[in-house]
Design goal:
alpha/beta, about 230 residues, globular, homodimer
């Protein structure tokens, strides 16, 4: 299976690494690959650069946003939420056909200081904005409600007994994303319905951020007890 | 122990009934008690009125908002969130001294149709509005993130293995509220810090409402797996 990942930050790298580990061929997209290759990443020790990180993960290639968006049927939006629409424009997402876009981003606004607020909320959401602007994409909102390490390794928290939410307008796309989440180890995936459920999924961020401060670790997640 | 409950809807009645069962003397406050006594409630069968409901629960008296607010050191705000500030005004809350106000309300706006949106969010919250307007009250936000039946009977969901959040500026008030929650059966109470955490606690409502629709039962709750 081939997959594109938009974004080379911690979230994008974590997802790309997990997909590669599972045997996918991945293109990670960035604005200027030659510049991104020199960026220092934390995973492999102090001072390590992305080119060295990639050299150890041969199933992952670095490309432009457009190269990532056309690589495979499933593309992940792992950019920061405030830049996601611009990145999708740069990736020429309007012309990539009926690809599945897994939107894991949160529209956080850091311009007011900490904690961040939300750029869009309550009557709209980033997931909906993307779906409206790119109607040919099949947007599935997923995994935006937890830390990157938990996204790809749910068993690292409470033995995996917690919940991944998803939503989107296309049932087949959600079935494909569910299968990928299950391959990550997710056992409790709740389909919240159409893409408007992104509002609730994004508005959970403020309590997540508060819990992060209180628990002093990002290694936790919401579980829907029922 | 004596307690006041502002509001006679399902949330107010459920909390009052639980407190009475635990041996508290409770005054439930309403705008016009004589009118509220004739209101039909659902708990005791079709056509039952509140006066019959009260006759079976002798530790609960019905009074005005002001009578409830001055009854006991701990007062519950179980009014609908859009009316809470007006009710606190009617209850003369400014003159009731350093009482603990447990705010379980959500500032839901039904004027746009379903699902409701939030009247205040992200950079402010109902919990903060109440605390600002009534600085002598010691506001503790709690139990707004679940159905009324779950609030007072956590063991009814997954054996009680789920989370109650609370926040507020007064540590002593939070300790008293924690003790009451534990008397309800809560085992996992997370103190999220000062009253600004009300933002996140209230912004969880949209995903709660969506889950209610998907799960087709209000008998669920968030658990913080960690």
């Amino acid at each position: 299976m081939t997959t594109g990942v938009l974004g080379t930050g911690a979230v994008g790298r974590t997802i790309a690494a997990k997909l590669a580990e599972l045997g996918h061929d991945v293109v990670m997209g960035t604005r200027v690959p030659a510049e991104t290759l020199r960026r220092v990443v934390k995973e492999d020790g102090a001072g390590s650069q992305l080119d060295a990180w990639l050299a150890k993960r041969t199933r992952i290639k670095l490309g432009t946003f457009a190269e990532a968006a056309t690589h495979g049927d499933l593309v992940w939006n792992a950019t920061s939420g405030g830049k996601s629409l611009a990145v999708l424009g740069a990736s020429r997402a309007a012309s990539v056909g009926p690809r599945i876009l897994v939107d894991v981003a949160n529209p956080l606004d850091f311009s007011r200081g900490m904690p961040p607020t939300l750029l869009v909320k309550d009557t709209d959401s980033l997931g909906e904005q993307i779906q409206r602007e790119y109607p040919s994409l099949r947007v599935v909102k997923a995994l935006n409600t937890m830390n990157a390490a938990v996204m790809t390794d749910p068993s690292s928290v409470a033995g995996g007994a917690h919940t991944a939410f998803m939503c989107g307008n296309d049932a087949e796309a959600k079935a494909e994303v569910r299968a990928v989440l299950e391959s990550f180890g997710w056992r409790d995936v709740i389909d919240l319905g159409d893409i408007t459920a992104s509002r609730g999924m994004e508005m959970i961020l403020p309590i997540w951020l508060r819990l992060f401060g209180i628990l002093k670790t990002p290694s936790f997640n919401f579980h829907i007890a029922r």
